[in-house]
Structures are given as structure tokens and as C-alpha cells.
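P.,

For your records, the input lines for the assembly:
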Amino acid sequence: MVYAVISLAVMGAVFGVILAVAGKKFAVEVDPRIEAIQKILPGANCGSCGYPGCSGYAEAIVLGGAGMSLCPVCGSDVAQNIAQIMGASVDEKTSQRNVAQLMCAGSTGKAKPLYKYEGIQDCKAVALQYKGPKVCNYGCFGLGTCVASCPFCAITMGEDGLPVIDREACTGCGVCVRECPQQVLQLAPVGQLVHVRCSNKDKGKDAKAACEVACIKCKICEKNCPEGAIKVVGDLGSSIAVIDYEKCTNCGICVEKCPTKVIEKQEPVDKEGCRNTDEIAAEASTGCALCGACKE
Amino acid sequence: MRDISIIVISAVLINNIVLSQFLGICPFLGVSKKVSSAVGMGLAVTFVLTFAGMITWFVQQFVLIPLEIEYLQTIAFILVIASLVQFVEMVVKKTSPDLYKALGVYLPLITTNCAVLGVSILNIQKTYGFLDSVVNSFANAIGFTLALVLMAGIRERLEDADIPASLKGLPISLITAALMSIAFMGFTGLI
Amino acid sequence: MRDVLKLGAFLLIVAGIAGLGLGYVNSLTAPVILAQEEENKISGFQEVYSQAEEIKDESAKYLPDGADGIVREVNVAYQKGTPAGVIYMVEPKGYGGEIQMLVAFDIATKEITAIKVLSNKETPGLGAKCGEEFFSERFQNKSAEGVLELVKQEPVGDNQVMAITAATITSKAVVEGVNTAREHFVSNFL
Amino acid sequence: MNNQGNLLTVTPSPHLHSSNSIPAAMRDVIIALIPAFIASVYFFRISAVLVVVTCIVTAVVCEMAAQKLMKREVTVNDYSAVITGLLLALTLPATVPLWVAAIGAAVAIIIGKQLFGGLGNNIFNPALIGRAFLLASWPVATTGWVTPIDGVSTATPLGIIKESLGSELPNLTDMFIGNIAGCLGETSALALLLGALYLIYKKHIDWRIPTGYLATVFAITAVVGMTKGQGLSYPVFHLFAGGLMLGAFFMATDWVTTPVTKKGRVVFGIGCGLITVLIRLKGGYPEGVCYSILLMNTLAPLIDRYTKDRVFGGGKSHA
Amino acid sequence: MNLAKTFSKGIINENPLFRLMLGMCPALAITTSVENGIGMGMAFTAVLLASNVVVSLLRRIIPESIRIPCFIVVIASFVTITEMVMHAYAPALFESLGIFIPLIVVNCIILGRAEAFASKNGLVPSVMDALGMGLGYTLALVTVSAVREVLGAGTFLGIPIIGLIDNPALVMILPPGGFIALGCILALLNKMQQKKAQSN
Amino acid sequence: MKKGTFKGGVHLPGYKDMTQGLGIVTAVIPDKVYIPLSQHIGAPCSPIVQVGEEVKKGQKIGEGKGFVTAPVHASVSGKVVAIETREHPGGNFVPCIVIENDRREEWEKTIKPRSNPQDLSPEEIRKIVFEAGIVGMGGATFPAHVKYSPVEGKKAEVVVLNGVECEPYITSDHRLMLEKAERVVAGLQYIMKSVDCSKGVIGIEDNKPDAIEVMEKAASGVPGIEVMSLPEKYPQGSEKQLIYSCTGREVPVGGLPLAVGVVVSNVGTSVAVAEAIEEGKPLIERILTLNGDGVKSPANYSVRVGTLFSDLIEQSGGYTGEIEKIIAGGPMMGKTVYTDSVPVIKGSSGVVVYKKKEQEVFKERDCVRCARCVDGCPQFLEPTTLMKLAKRQQWEEAEKNYALNCIECGSCEYVCPARIPLLQYIRRAKQEITAINRAKANK
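C-alpha cells returned:
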């Protein structure tokens, strides 16, 4: 009994000393701020900030002085929180998030097909075959590379052969925009409801020949816009109607006037602000990775 | 002294520590996603387990038995192992940065690896001598590494497999382990 | 350094208290455990050789080379001061490891009184059946003088024992254990 | 004159495809197993038919049910479930209770294959998983060997060697033809060789695995035979005994669960051979073919990883 | 969080074995019979309860930097006590659980609860937490062992089940059976959760 | 006559019976020719004529900058009526010079037979080859003069002429060898001279015994030239595989044939070289096989560059019915075109037309790891592994597994029983790897 007390006590003491010494000598300085920031980032690791995943970005903020509002997925509140952790202030980011918009309405039946494609369903692969399966060289191929690329599962392929973007779920990370070989996806503020659904810069006649719903550069929209927000920009043979989102008031006059119905107005979405990062994390996370690290 | 080859074959193949004794399941399922990290973890466990087998044997023979406090085995061993892992980490860090790089991340995970404590206790339960204890510890660690690396190889392949959603992750790993365990049954009686 | 000492001291106290507690509990349970083990052993002996008045462990005398081979213990059962039976503990190697078993002989009848498998690591449902009564009964009252032989069908000869279905290796091991004990018995007690 | 306004098809090359297809290959495997099946029916009569039918029907039904449940395309028409059922049946004794055989087929298909995502994704040979599962679960029911034709209870040649209990070893001719006790499909080496030749002729199996396998078994047992003073009859006995022929030609050559690299396939064959001999000579089971292949299945991903072939023009692929 | 919730979370939502995937080794090793499962679960609960109580009481005294070793000492002590008590009063169970009793020490759940809950909460919540987690783990063990015992031995708590007892699937009480049973149960739970998520 | 072959590869059905017995027919010279400004590997040429300008047959109408380029020439005499972007058989849109044929067939006046072809120096030969716009006519369209130019530290020891023609349906080289054997040998001699080597090998697959016989006769008595009969196997005609078959040498990864002392040219290129040197003719005409079940009467044509596929098809009696696809080149490596108004270019060895059939649609299945693709890959790659890496978008891993070494022969896809479009996945990987490497280089 005496031995038990003594030997255990000694062992405890020795163990304590070793641990204390080890803790002192070999403490790895982990900046607690990195962890704190990582916690409030969405954790979807989409890479839109330009760093390898959320933890990479958190590290870059603390150690590399990276900007605090680079995460396109998070709203200003997150940026503010990061700033708070870092003890700095951050420029007010627009409170509206961006969402991806498809600048093409050339669905099956409307855009003329050039050939029948058989092969792997990948827009980048079909791009090698005469610039895609449609006569229009600017439009959406409809093979769903964006659908596969979306880290938030916000894009689905519609029955008309064009991708459908769930604007509630879209975080505006921009992965699909980067992946689309036709550059027919764009980011726009979620409150922007009017869009020109065409990217064809060919002359009106050629564009019309390729697709029923093409911008024919008639400039009717330009003439009718009360705000001067929509303009056909570019040189002859390489022009297209473009909306200035700063000026546009979503009045919808251009939508009515457009002869080819290529300008469209969307329904507004419920939530304009950024999505809750916890919610995103819950969607994006795949559960416990069982790396064992948590047991440390 | 018992036949060393029997100890080795028994520990590695017949009574594989993971597949038939169920020790070290957590790291077996946790660190088997990639072959490279499985090899790292295996090395780290081998390292620590062999040392732990040695030291706990000494503790048992020269401290617990003489003082007649064998009943303190569990608590003494866990303290020894925890300190050992810390100590090993310190030494490796100081003496061999390369080794530290390879094993470093895995070392802290080993403290709570039940394989280490389990094998140490089994060594004593089986009344192994010093050499047998060391051999048994080492062989068990090899068995652990073998199972871990095999599992990692399979899981890398399963990454391409179109596994039903509800089975993804842990369930299919467990079923794979079950089938591995069935395969390893072929070794029973092999001594 | 002060820190280190302080922490060391704290752990020392915690561990000390733990040691105290454990020591106390041990002092309570140790005798119970000991008594139980003793009882287990005796009841085991009783099962294989019931008529003994006193059983003495005489392994030192009968196993001069220590527990070499598979015979681990030789216990002699005395009746009125003279040896009446012998209870062997043998550990033959089975399918999954050693099978620990008792084999008892009666000196007068030169027969096996009973065998009992104390522990085994055989396959559940197969070899592990060697611990069951139906199998150990097959050894009862076999003569100690002839070598026991394992057979697969119903035994025809006196010295034959039928194996457990689909567990030949285990059965063989048990028979080997009995035969080894038998040899020792024949050469030392008859 | 753009061909009457009809849209042409544009596809990346190649525009030619061989007639190879999974169902065609599977059909050939079934054809190759027919001699073994006929032999089993000859030797074990109606019970062989019953076991085979039970296994195949259960396998096909389970495959359909599992794919329906998982809401996947039902692919029983690729015959792979039929093969699994057939192969499993050929590894069972004629006396096996039919419900045991059915459970084996169900386990083979569901646990061995469908849980992993179906054909192509399984790690282990499904039929062997089924057999190993049965052997572990109902060891008595799955090892009730009988002599051919008259059906008297006895031991397999390997069992006779292993347990060295009485009975005499059959002669090599009987073993080659199949006039011995054993599983339905493993008794007749002749029938299996016929099927194997067909598969090799059809190029469905690679020579490397069976050659590596059989050569390894032969070489080691030849050495052992020499030390035992039994000469050549010992290794030949081992070649014809047990499930070696069935395993080497029909199980170890399973596409899905074996390495894809050429070197890897040699290693796989040799590994199977080593483990088989190890289990046969030293292990607890009389026969080691089933376990040796399963064990090498676990090793296959690593073999693939470390036996990358040299690239044309030098350079070694990275793992 | 109210006490009932503290108690009940361990049973379903944060079930140590099925949700947190902790304590897998004993759940695979000793679940060959329901009796073992119950015994292990009780031993586990006892240790968890005792250590949670002590840690919770001492939570203000233990220095931050050596809390882990302190927890380990506390846990190891209770494990040893449990071991000794079982050896003395339930020798059969002690035999069949074998090495997995001392290994409760390295069961991550206990250290985890001490670290994550008891060291931050008062006595009563800690007790509820320990009881909930202990019960959850015990239930999980019983589930796994019930599957294995019924299929593999044809009995439930040693009582023969007609129809299964004659030809049980032995493999289920062999090592592979542990993996299969746990894997399938987890898959089923996943499936149920997905169904639930879909219907929501 | 030795026999050698490479490892890997597949056996293809030939589909050559239709045309291999048919002599070369001169194709109708169309009213308009469409001459793409890009008919070689490298940057496209710029036009050096203007719309409205009269051009002569053989006149240079486009030239490029730099070393790796080949000029293009008018294939008829007439008037340039347009320079416009048109579809190209290579699967893209390319600027073309459209010439309206004046039917006068007037040669550019500088073009006349050379009196002293034997006395030319290697430099002069290369100059003539360059000026004649000769490119690899097997389909690769690599400018020939570049191949024949010396590289520091490398010495050509063997010139291998590719008479393998392993693509199914295509018989143009076969006919060429039968009908212009002397020219093939003569061209080979000029090439040997230009690269300063004394050994020449003509590799021909043994499914063309008549060609082997004719070529052997033509080569007999010519020192240093040997005809090799090679077993029939695809892709024997691939440069690296051909070199291995004929010389046993392996072109190192990422290396050129010259690294092992070999220069390879197609037999068609050889004829073009001979014609350029002896007669001064630029490359404006080539032999082409029109074949497939979609055309009424398959044929081997001698056709002017710039002739539309539709012109040839019309000459052959049109389509047999509704057609599925038109392949520019052979079915293994050729590219499908979406219209038949695509011009013949210097590298067009054949046009194959498939009739629409009610065929069962083969669905892609999971890989069953049968390893036929691995066994069939002549580059010893693991197509199935590359496919999986491409599906997972692990481009760096794919590069480490030598995705860039793929020669896109299509053997893997041909043999795959699971009908996985392996080559397409590998091509995707190559596409991404090249993009990544380019981005890295730009950084």
C-alpha cells in the first residue's frame, strides 16, 4: 500500500516534469487566431479566395497579411469578424452577394445544332470539336461541366439542355465561371434581376441564323432604357448588349422591347445577403474524416 | 524461450492485432485513406510499440513485481507510454529531423492507440521473457502496419468505386475489414 | 523551473491519492480474488477425481526438469495417506493455441476417471466444442495402458475415441494431451 | 449536298470498336465452365445440379434485388451474377444443404459485390467471399465430402494428407479425370483444363497469373517432394488436388480483383502459389486456394501501385 | 442546455459508437454475446461516471497545462478499481472481457468527455452526461452484440432461439462478424438518417 | 527481309478489300478549290495573294514565319475569289483561300524539271523540300524540311519510310507503292542524302505482299535500301512503334526520332520529295482513299489539295443512304467532320463514310479492370488509371503517370469491353496538363 502510493506518486511527478519540460521546450507556436478564423470561414474549400482551401486562407490572413474580405462566399459580417480577430478594420463589402448567371438562352430547339455529339459529357472536351455542337460559337454547350464543378451543388442541368442555377444556394464563389470553356457564366449581384441572355458577338444576321434567341444588335434596348444602363458595346461584328449593373433599376422596359426576347427578368430571391457560413459548412462537409487529429 | 518465429507468424498473420484482436481500430480506420500516410503511421507505431514493449516489461519486472503492486499495471503502463511518446517525440525532433518529418504528425496520435497499451499488457499476461516481449511487440506492430497499408491500398481503389451513399466512408471500410479478416482466416492453424 | 516543480508536485499529489485509493481497493479485493482462484482449482480437481481426501501438487517431484513438454502439473490425490489417483494438467497445442486441460487417472483401476478442458482458444462452434461434456465423456473409463487412437467413425476398439466432427486437429490435440499424461502416469505410478 | 440536311455525328477518335463486351466475355467464361459442370453432374448426379441451380438462381435474384433497392440499373444481363453463382457452386461439396448454398450466393453477391458498387468495383472475388463465409459459418455443412457416383462419405485427397487418417490416396489418373472426393468443380482437372484452354484461346485470361500460380506450386512442392523422397508424383498430386486448377484458371484470373499491370499479374500468381502451398503444408486448412486468392486480392491494389510498367521510351511511372 | 437533453443526447444524437465513432475496439471485440455487451457497457459507464464526477469536482483546481495527464491518472485509477472489483465479484465476465477492461483507459470517449464536458461543467450535468453517454454506449454495444449473438450463436442472452440454434452462422461471432455487424448497422443508420433528411 | 514488331497494340479488321485492288483514279478537278492556310503543324500561313488576283497552278499563295512552317500553293490556276474562315478537317475553323478554277491548268512558270537532281547538296534538297511545302503525308503534317535538318550532336543513321498503313479502310499508300515504286525509292534516296546517311528501310505490313514484292524489286540494286515486312498490327504506322519495329530502337520519352538516329517519313512524302526535286512540283496533289459503307463506289483518288470531300463523294456516285459520320482520315485516328464541304489537305490520306445503322447503343460501364487497355497500349501506359485520374481531375497525378506520352492511337478504347471512352479521358488530361504547364511557363 505504501509502495503503491510512493511509486505512483513518483511516476506522476516524473511524468509531470517530462511533460512540463516538453511543453516548454517544444511548444509549437500555433497562432490561435488561425484556428479562430478557420472556424468562421465556411469550410467548403472551394478555393475562390485564391488560397488552397479555407485553412490555407486563414493562415494567409494571419501569417501572410492576406486581405480579410477575399472570401466571396462569406458576407461582410464574416469579414468583420475576421477583422475583429485580427484587431483591424475592414472596408465595408457590398452586402449583396454575387450569384452566377448564364448568359445564354440557346436551349435545345432554339439554338441551331451543328452536329450530333457523342462522347464524354464534358464541355471542355466538346470544345475541341468545331467549337462545340451548336452553330453559335459563343453559347452554352450544355454538357454540364459547371454542374460538376459547383462545390455547393447549386447548378443542375435543365431539361432544355441549359444549366439552371439555384440562386438561393449559389454562393458566388465563381468556380463555375472559371471552369466554363465558353465563358458564358458570369457573376452578378443577386439583386440584379435583368440580364442579357446572350453572348453572341457576331453580326445580327449571323447571330439570328445561329439561334432564335440571339442578341441581334438592334439597339432597341439601348434606345428605350430610361437610365441609359444598357448599351450595345464593341465594334461592328464583335458587339453585344451589356447592362451596367450600377445603373440598372430592374425596370424591365428593355425586357418588353427586345424583339428576340433575349433580355430576361428574374424573380427576386428571398435572401439577398450572404449565406450563413455554418449552413454552407454543413452542406459541404463530409462528416468526420476520422483523421484521428481530434483525439490529440 | 518460445520459438520466436511462432510469435512472429502468430502476431502478424494469425492473430493479427487489427483483424482478429481488434486493437488499434481507430487509427486503422482513420489513417488508412492514403498509402503514404498509412506507411508513416505504421512506422511510427512500430517505433513506439517496440519501445513500449521493452520499457513496460522492465517496469513490470523490476518495479511492479518486486514491490508487489502488480495491480497498478494499467495506470503505470499508461503513464509510461504517455511519457514515452512525449520523450520519443522530443528525441526524434532533436536527433533526426527527417524522421521527425516522416513520423511527427503521427506520434501524438499514438498515446491513445489502444494497440500500444494492449500489446504491453498482453506481453505480461502471456508471461513472455524480455526478448519475446520485444519480438512480440515488434511483430504486432508489423501486423498493424500490414493491415493498415493493405487497407489504405484498397481504400485508394475504392475512391473510384461507385459505392452506395449510405455505405460510403466508415461502413464500407468496416465491411472491407471484415472481408480482409475472412481472408486472414486462411492463416489459422499455421504454426 | 519553478513552474515545472509546481506541476510535478501537483501530479505527485494526484497520483499519490490515486495510489492510496487503489491500494485500499486492492486490499479489499485481493483476498476475494485469491480465494476464488483457489476454489476454482479445487472444484476442477473434484470434477475429474471426486474421491480424493487430499490433493497435493507434486510437480516438483514428478517433473524433475520443470514443466518441460506439455505436462504442466502433476497433482496426486491421496486417500488414507496413500496415493489413489493422479490429476495432470497438460497443455497440448491445438488449432488456435494451447488447450489447458486436466486428465485424471485412478491408480487402482488403471483407468482415466475423467478429463476436463479448462481453457481453449479453438474456433467457436467447432474446436471449442472440446470443452463440452459430450466429448470429454468419450475419454471416461478408457484404460490407461493402451495408446488412445483417434478415429472418425464410431469407435470399434476399446482404445479408440471418436473425433469432433470437422475439428480433427483439436481432437487430435486433446488425445495427444491425454496420451502424454497417460505415458507419464504409466511410467511413474504403475 | 450535306446529305439531305441530316446532322452528322461528331465524336472524338477512335471510330472503330472491337466486338469485345462484358456480357460476351462473361458468356465465354460460362461456356468454359460447362465441361466442369458436366463432370460434376456425372460424378455427383442430381445433387450437383441442385446445388448449381440454387446458387445461380439465388445470385441472379440477389443481384436484381440489390440493384433495385439501391435504385441502380439492373445489370443481370451481363451474366456476371451467373458466373459468381456457378463458381460458388463449383467450390461447394455435393452434400451441402441447399439453404447454405443459397446464403453463400447471397453473401457473395450482396456483401462481396453490390455493397462495393457492383461489377468492377469489388475488391474481392465474390464467389470466394461466399465460399469463405460459408466455410467459417457452417464448417461441417461445407466440408461433407463424398466419393463420386456412389456418394460414400470420405475425405478429399488433401484432407487425407493433412489429417493422415487412415484412407488411401487415390491415384493420379483418377485425380486428373476427377474420380475423387471434393467440391463439385474441383474434382476433374481435365474438365477444367478444357475450359481454361477455351478461355486462353479466346484471350479472356492472361497466361501470366495461372502460369505463375501453377509454376510456383509445382516448384515448391517438387522441392518438398524431393526431401520426402516422393519424386515427381508429389508435385503432380498437388497440381491436380483440391481447387488449384479451378482457382488458377477461373478465380485468380478474375479481371476485377487482380492487378492490371503485367508484372503485377506475375507477382499475383506467384503470391497465390506461395500462400496456397503454405496453407496446404503448414496451415490448419487442408486446402488454401480460396484463401490464397482472397489474400492476394487484398494485396492487388498495392501490387498495382508498386509494379508500374516501364513506359515506352524509358521512364518509370510514379505511384 | 437542460439536464434531460444532456442526458438524452448521448443516447441518439451523439451516440458515442454510432455517431461519434469512438470506442470501436471493444465494440468489435467483446460483442460476441449480449452478456458481454452489457457487462462492458456497465464497466464503461462506471468508469465514465466516476471520472466525470472527479474531473468535474476538481475542474477548478487542476492546472491547465497538466490537465490531460491528471485526467489520465484519474481515469486509469477508476479503470483499475473497476478491474479489481470485477475480478473479485464477476470473475466469468472478467475472463471474457479480458484485456478490454484495462483498455477502457485508452477509450477516447472517456478522455473526450472529461476534456470536453466534465472539465467545463458542474457536478450534476457531468453526472447526467456520463449516464447518458454510458447508456448510449451500452445500448450500442447491446445492439451490435445482439446481432452477433443471435446470428452467430443462435441465442439471445444465452437463451436458444428456435430455428437458429441448430445452424448459426458461426462467422458472426468470429472476428469478421464484428466488422460485418458494425458496418451494416452503421450503413442502416446512415440510410435512416438520409431518409429523415429527405423527408424534412 | 527481316520481321520485327513492337510490343502491345491490337489487331484490327482491315476493311481494305474494297479499295486495295483499285488503281489510282485522277479525281475530277473542281470548279473551286478551298486551300486552308493551315495544313501543317505550327502557326498558320498568311496569305500572300489578294482577293481578285489571278494565280497559276503551283504558285505560292501563303507562307508562314519561322522555321517550323510550310508554304501553301495554288492547286489550280484561276482567280482568288475569297479568303474566308471555313471548317477544316482537323476539327476547327481555319482561314482558306478560295480559288475559282479557270480550267487552263497553267503551271507557274518557275516550275520545270530539274536537269541535275543527282548533284544537289543536302542544303539544296532541304530548300527545295521547304519551298515545295512538303509536310508529313501520313497525317501528322509535320513540315518535312525540319525533319531533314541536322540537329547539333545528333546523327541520322537510318531513314525509315513508313509504308505500313495500319489504319483500316485506307489504301492510298498501298496503291502509291504499287504504282509509284520507283518514285518512292528515288525520294528515299534524296532524303537519305539530305540527312547524310547511307541506310534506308522501307517498312511495310505483311498484309500487302504485292507492295512488298514491288518495292523489293524497285529497291534491288539500290545500295543501302532494304524493304522490311512487318507483321500486321495496329499502330505499327505510329512513328515510335515503327522505329522500334524496324530498328529495335526506342525513342526516349519526350524525345524525337533523331535522338536514336532515325528519320521517319511516309512513303507519300517520299514521292512528293522526289517530284519536287526532279520535276520542281510543289505539293498540290495527293493520293486519297474514299471508303466506307456510306459511299457507293469506294476508290483511290489522286486529288488536288483544296478539293471538297463532297466533290469526291459525288464522283463516287454519292452516298448509299443516310449517313452517320464522315471521318477525315482513318477510323482509328481520323477526325469526324460535321459537313462534307471540307477540303482535302496535304495530310488527308483518306475519307471514310459510315452509313447510319440501327446499331445497339453501347453504354459506358464501370471499368472491370480487365487490363486489355494496358496490354494493348503500345506506349505501355495504363489507360484505365489515367481515365480514373482524369475523372477525379487529378491532372498532376496523370502527368506523373505519363499521360503526355499517349500517342492517341485509340487501341485502348478499341479493345475496352466496358466501352469506356478511355482516349477521350486521356485527351482531357493532356489538355489540362498542357494548360497547366503553359500557365507555369508563363509565370
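Two observations worth noting. The interface with chain B takes residues 366-367, 388, 391-392 of chain F (CB under 8 Å). The radius of gyration of chain F is 21 Å.

Regards
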